[in-house]
Amino acid sequence: MKGIGGIDHVAITANDLTSACAFYDSLFGAQLVAQHSVGETVLVRQIALGGAVLSIHQRGNGVKLVAARPTPGAADICFRWNGTIDEAVALLASRSIAVLEGPTPRRTADGRPGHSIFFRDPDGNLLELMAAD
Catalytic: 128? Predict the structure, then answer.
């Protein structure tokens, strides 16, 4: 059947591209997929986080094909966590990252029961880690 097969990547805007990428790498072991540079200046980095790709744009980078109002801190992203929710809580605690809410009961995109925790990245984006029960 033709149609949507999933989400390939999500783009966010960062105040500091290097700091944002360091946060995701430190927390999740991000893998560099690609980057767009002009001269020596990196404008966009795409990083793999499990099966997802996050495209991080430096604020004010001059790239034209972006959202109408690319703003740091405007994203709300849920990542599927492959461990237990308690392991996700422990990971955040080990990095001194505050949990805003959770563990909270939720349903995954495929309808399975699960639990989520919510926290913020350095730009204020709301991040969610969801673990299926």
Answer: yes
